[in-house]
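hi! just following up on the protien thing from before. the input was this:
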Amino acid sequence: MVQSDFLWGAAVAANQLEGAYLSDGRGVSNIDLLPYGKDRLAIAKGEMHYTCVSEDAYYPSHNAIHFYDKMKQDIELLHELGLKCFRFSISWSRIFPTGLEENPNEKGLSFYDELISELEKYNIEPIVTITHFDVPKGLMDHCGSWRSREMVNHYLKFTRVLFERFKDRVKYWISFNEINMLLHKPFTAAGITFEENEAKEQIIYQAAHYQMVASAYATKQLHEIDKNAKMGCMLAAGEFYPYSCNPVDIRRAQKDNQKNYYFVDVQARGSYPRWALKKIDLLGIDISPSDIKVLRENTVDYISFSYYASRTSKEDVSDVDTNTGNAAGGVVNPYLKRSEWGWMIDPLGFRITINSIWDRYQKPLFVVENGLGAQDLIDDHHQIEDDYRIEYLSQHISEMILCIEEDSIPIIGYTMWTAIDLVSASTGEMKKRYGLVYVDKDNEGNGTLRRVPKKSYSWYKKLIESSGKIR
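and the predicted 3d structure came back as:
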């Protein structure tokens, strides 16, 4: 049975909804340098430098959906929706504009102070992601971002300010959003761009180590500053299935799952898996004895994760469709339906993934992203009949509830992606809509920004009121 204290909510990210990218002292971040259009993916992967785009490139994060200016109006919509919690992230460059400053930007802190106060007014629990695909450009220029061990100290300066400022007001923190995306989109995840002939894998795994060390120190820091607060890691989850019962496909899926769980193995268990120790030794990764100690002694309190789709692994991909639309790769699963953007739709895979994570770590879980990107149209009555989103959410939530009621897995809460339409992280589009509330804005930035609750808004409101009963 879903308990009365289960946290039903929704999730967003600063760079996808705030806008106001240079307002009140905010500096430039890596995502501010990601344009909409044909160059976005190459830059996200670190394969193309962000300066190599046309002068008239459009950057959707710069204005996003103007949440910075419309925050109170939008929080009112969350209150009317009946949310028990709201997951958001803090823009690093809004607090430390270049990342190098000794003192934080008070106007930036005041914005989040006000945001948390609005949530408190409505008894909505804040779930705060410290870094959601967010690195100040100043740190990219100064030390190459997470290529450098120096980033650990910059990160800890940032986290200390947050923990001290919001002590006793934020119970649940998340150190890095979808930390494993560093393996697939290094610029998006860590502000890293590669030069020609650089050892990409070595750079990525070194950056991964520094991020995990930073997360461990931040966990220690949080527990010292606020003994009631909890730190979580976050995984872009989705089980890899073998394409067939051919042992080579099964082994490929096994290896893909090991790689996907790599970060959480360290953050939740406190040590590198044996296969990874061999790999990082071959790559020559810089790991100090103090790193090993802090990782071992400061594991996370809970595991949060996103789930949009399962993945399928095949050793020989020459005869199958590999266009899954998913950064984690894999091949098209012939047994599943697909979204408009090619993502597999697999509700049962959600239950399989939750069970896999629980069996592996046996720490409390928190579903912090799950949703469907689709093109929503307003009809002649100014309504958005998004039954396809309701179907997706209801099927996935049903599987999650079975995990709680039948599989006895402790799940803290569920924050669907997302309460309100915002800029797509993967494509930079607005037409790839995930929200329960429609925002009148198109891919080129045109529109009135009018907010219109969709049919799914009323559906989710009733679901929360009934403690998760699917109607």
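The two ends are 16 Å apart (CA to CA).
The chain has a mean pLDDT of 95.
cheers
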